[in-house]
Fold each of these.
Amino acid sequence: MPTMNELSAQVHQTALDKGWYDGGGRTFGEVIALMHSELSEALEDYRNGAAPESTWYEKKTDGERHISREPVDETWKPCGIPSELADVVIRVMDACAYYGIDLDRAIQEKMAYNATRPHRHGGKTI
Ligand SMILES: [Mg+2]
């Protein structure tokens, strides 16, 4: 199983290959805003009635939108909350690879710290 850092490198290479870093890339603020936008897309799917675990597939051909419950092939776009959450993780991984962040270490450190925190962090409601 690949590490988070290995997946991050792969995600970042795809972003490079697809031209997202041509011309100098994005500012840190833009990178964070794009992470937010994927969460907003997940919320919008939910607001439109999608179940959190539901995935469907779309393909546009000749200006017409086709939808399938099952993937037809890799050219059909996965849609729904799982796909939007995957986009969040992909954007986080891309940023970590770009900025040289050791995501495996950061997650392990944060999980270890979280395990030491008090129940509900001292009475927070959510
Ligand atoms: Mg998205």
Note: The beta strands are 56-61, 64-68, 77-79.
Amino acid sequence: MADLSLQPKSIDRIGSGIRITWQDGAISSYSGELLRDHCPCALCKETPGHPPPQGRPPGPVSVKSAQAMGWYALQLVFSDGHDTGIFTYELLRKLAAESK
Ligand SMILES: [Zn+2]
């Protein structure tokens, strides 16, 4: 049986970011900056001694679109044009817990 805490019931755009209502009733909100800073793609990962090639630019960043990828993740497109970030629901749930 699927883990309800990792399945979104609805995903809404709010302000610069998104709000996810989960199947277990929890609600998590994320700003565009928070999501951009935690983008898990290879281009945003820091390697020792090198800044990430596509780290967050200065200034505000918002989520332009959020597209469900199967049942396990969301692909987010940011206002700075960055579109390679695949955020698994597991990661989003973890981010929500950490940013409380
Ligand atoms: Zn990225």
Note: The chain has a mean pLDDT of 91.
Amino acid sequence: MEKAVLVGINYSSQTIGQTKEFLDELEFLVHTSGAKTTKRFTQSLKVAHSTTFVGKGKLSEIEEFVKDKEVDLVIFDDDLSPSQLRNIEKQLCCKILDRSNLILDIFASRARTAHAKTQVELAQYQYLLPRLTRMWTHLERQKGGIGMRGPGETQIETDRRIINQKISNLKLKLSKIDKQKSAQRNNRGNMVKVALVGYTNVGKSTLMNIISKSKVFAENKLFATLDTTVRKVVVDQIPFLLSDTVGFIRKLPHQLIESFKSTLDEVRDADILIHVVDLSHAVYQEQMNSVNDTLNELLNSPKLTILCFNKIDLIKEKELIALKEFWKNKDLNVVFISAANKLNIGNLKNELFKQVKDIHFTRFPYNKTQIYY
Ligand SMILES: Nc1nc2c(ncn2[C@@H]2O[C@H](COP(=O)(O)OP(=O)(O)OP(=O)(O)O)[C@@H](O)[C@H]2O)c(=O)[nH]1
Ligand SMILES: [Mg+2]
């Protein structure tokens, strides 16, 4: 197992508690990707250092630890610029990753279908392209600086051309898959569509399995789901489609949102969203906010949403009562459930089926008379 060290900045705009939560999440990402976190380094700064992300003294401290403890990986909680990456790599002499890098890596290891694989590969190349300068430093270091400038640059140009070519091939491949997918979606006709959305690891797939009685993969790791699963559910003779989608995360790499756009079409096409939230999580409100931000980026207008607070089995009764009070005053469709322990699933189903019926009967008024006569 590779040994990793985490580095985060305690920005003046955030509390120490928040910094800790961010690094907890980064550690969970590291765990998901199969490495072990051995230490965290944090520094209080207004903004990141433009050349080395953290200050020079802190970087030396990290360097000492890395050498002493034979650390394989140093992971930064924010994205590094190409020049920061180059400077840090030069000093630490080990693998340097940033948050996007790590997320892309996890996505790559989780992708199963051709669709997901193509989308991740595209995102990876797009991430790599502006960072190609990094390869030049490798070359420089290996072969010595003077006289290598010409061939080095040619090498970058060649690499850049190859990668650009790969990107356009992948886009072409993706657009073919997208066409098939959109044909599939059109074939589904006018059925009411419901999509489960939410932060990663909140219990979307677990809930999908309960409502649709299917067997979608769910586990206590981040991004268990990459491919959208769609199931037909029938309630009181009314059919609707339920889809389980990829989880969101704070600072989801821009390239991933771009290339996962078609997977996220299920969300865009949905009539109703079930926004699943892990209510037991210390920063659940921040998770909700980052989901809402991503949804705003994705959708032109807000959708009918059921706010589904999950994992209530992990919350003390008194605290739960207070949370219910707090959310019930907000004029939203809220339900409090535990998917894993099947608590209050009836409430969610009632709320959902009521909304599904409403939409169904506006779309098929004829069926209503049929059913009621
Ligand atoms: N205690 C508790 N755990 C739950 C509950 N619902 C789901 N879990 C657990 O939470 C973990 C994540 O569940 P998933 O259903 O995979 O979550 P997801 O939202 O689909 O996650 P991604 O696909 O990774 O985005 C699993 O270990 C579930 O068993 C719940 O109500 N209570
Ligand atoms: Mg899932």
Note: The beta strands are 3-11, 36-45, 73-76, 95-98, 192-198, 229-235, 238-244, 272-278, 304-310, 333-336.
Amino acid sequence: MKDTDIAIRCNIVTISDDDVPFEEKTIIDHSSDEISTEDAAVLLKAVADELQNETYQFYVGTSYRHCLIWDRGQVVELTPPHDVLTQKIGQYLPDDPGLREMMIRSYGILKDHPINVSRRQQGKNPANCCWFWGAGTKPMLSSFEEKNHKRGVMISAVDLLKGIAIGAGMEVVKVEGATGGLHTNYEGKADAAVKALLSDGFDFAYIHVEAPDEMGHQGSAERKVQSIEFLDQRVIGRVKEQMEHAGADFRMLIMPDHPTPICCRTHTSDPIPYMLYDSTAPKNERHLYNEEAGKESGIFIPEGYKLIDRLFGAE
Ligand SMILES: [Zn+2]
């Protein structure tokens, strides 16, 4: 990115295809039923072929999450699509005429695209509109290593997390089959972290699993429970087992970045529960890990970014 570039998130979303003016349409799904990256790339190219120019460049990301770079743009206010699900879109469209126009035109380009014709036949939500949100400038982050005196890796399907890591000078490990969805490669992520720690000389591995958040946005209690069970067994359990097997001392910090309650299908700013596990600490107590247990512990850390100091034992 140039210093004068603005990066904007570009979701490929599902809006209602009823016969009403664009502004009257409803946003149905911020993730187009977790569209595959492969299909999304074809759709984004169709959009870019019509709309891309020297001012606006589209970049393919993962699944429904893509990026627009706006040359000499502005950090305009935009609405996250997952915050307004099931609502009429008119009042949430960008005020900026250029972005607004592109959203409207993207619907015209995508609605009858062969990929969407076949998605409808398969009973899937069509990926029929670009939705811009989250405008920002190039981040100026301090180096993770200089700050913490640890070498770190990021393991995530989500470009936002990878971007933060790259900005902080961390290594990004690519895991085949990591999708950011419910059926991601959990074992692959766990194994990548263990390899980074035990074989590649890293001190810190950040495993990010998007599924519990996504299932919250989808409003499915059943799939959310499933995603947490997968995370527990196929990531946390697997990492713990392999680290123990190797005879390594380690600490593990387990936490969400924010709640995404089923009831509201979007992020809330309530405190989140965390669990800090130390393989060398005596294990004569059983601890539950949930919101209630977190509340009862009486421990409250108002500044979440300070938690990492506890993980590294600096506090
Ligand atoms: Zn989310």
Note: The two ends are 36 Å apart (CA to CA).
